Amino acid sequence: MAKFYFSYAAMNAGKSTILLQAAYNYRERGMDVLLFTSDLYKGNNSGHISSRIGISADATLYTNETDLFSLIREKQSEHRIDAVFVDEAQFLTKHQVWQLARVADHLDVPVLAYGLRTDFRGELFEGSAAMLAIADSLREVRTICKCGRKATMVARLDPDGKALTEGDQVSIGKSTYVSLCRRHWEEIMGRLPSA
Fold first, then answer.
1. End-to-end CA distance of the chain
2. Which residue in 65, 74, 88, 166 is the catalytic one?
3. CB 126 within 8 A of CB 64
4. How far apart are CA 104 and CA 161, in angstroms?
5. So where are the chain's domains?
6. What is the CB-side half-sphere exposure of residue 34 using CA atoms within 13 A?
7. Model confidence over 101-120: pLDDT tens digits?
8. Using an 8 Å Cβ cutoff, are 153 and 122 in contact?
9. b/e map 138-177, b = 16+ CB within 10 Å
10. What are phi and psi of 153, to 5 degrees?
11. Sheet bearing 56-62, strands edge to edge
């Protein structure tokens, strides 16, 4: 029976690299995979997943309105699908997360989703919250803070390097982000306990 996997981490932990490597492994063995990424990351109206280390692959874009179950079922009727990969999975809606679970449960196709757990305010993304609740397998991909501890939080910085504490949950290409341990995140966010 196929499973629904959610791999999560802070920014710059290598989630897209892991996704691309896994998809490559399937393809190298003659298997067919579908790759999806959020339309927030479209380039020239096409989907693309890329890694900071220079590897990339084309992907189908999804929006909040995309019915992923129907789309994947349609593709499966045309040819065999051996796995589905979703990058930037934090941007999925709760309804889409359930659609992906149904892909694993009813279409018997493994789904491997990769994304952030929390935003710059330390709050769960809708898609991440739903995956943490229902995915069959959860995997934390680790990255490190400037101090060497495990980074679990993300801070959004303004052009002067000051941490932003308010704003839209999503800000693609307009901001700089840094991954930090919880201690340093609280420090940069001005949330230190009073003495």
1. 54
2. 88
3. no
4. 42
5. 4-142
6. 23
7. 999 999 999 999 999 999 99
8. yes
9. eeeeebebeeeeebbbbbbeeeeeebeeeeeeeeeeebeb
10. -120, 160
11. 47-50, 56-62, 33-38, 83-86, 111-116, 4-9, 137-140
Our measurement of the distance from residue 180's CA atom to the centroid of its chain's CA atoms, rounded to an integer in Å, reads: 18
Reference 181, options 154, 156, 159; nearest CA is 154
Residue 116 identity (one-letter amino acid): L
Q: Is residue 88 flagged as an active site residue?
A: yes
Structure tokens at 137: 């397998």
Residue-wise pLDDT for 139-168, tens only, equals 999 999 999 999 999 988 888 888 888 877
pLDDT in 10s for each residue of the chain, 195 residues: 899 999 999 988 889 899 999 999 999 999 999 999 998 866 666 687 878 888 888 899 999 999 999 999 999 999 999 999 999 999 999 999 999 999 999 999 999 999 999 999 999 999 999 999 999 999 999 999 999 999 999 988 888 888 888 877 766 655 688 899 999 999 988 877 765
- Rounded Cα distance, 82 and 30, in Å: 10
SS3 content of the chain, % helix, strand, coil (to 5): 30, 30, 40
**The pairing of beta strand 111-116 with beta strand 4-9:** parallel
The topology (CATH level 3) of 4-142 is Rossmann fold (3.40.50)
User: What angle in degrees, to the nearest 10, is found between the helix axes of 126-134 and 94-106?
Assistant: 30
Stated pTM of the model: 0.90
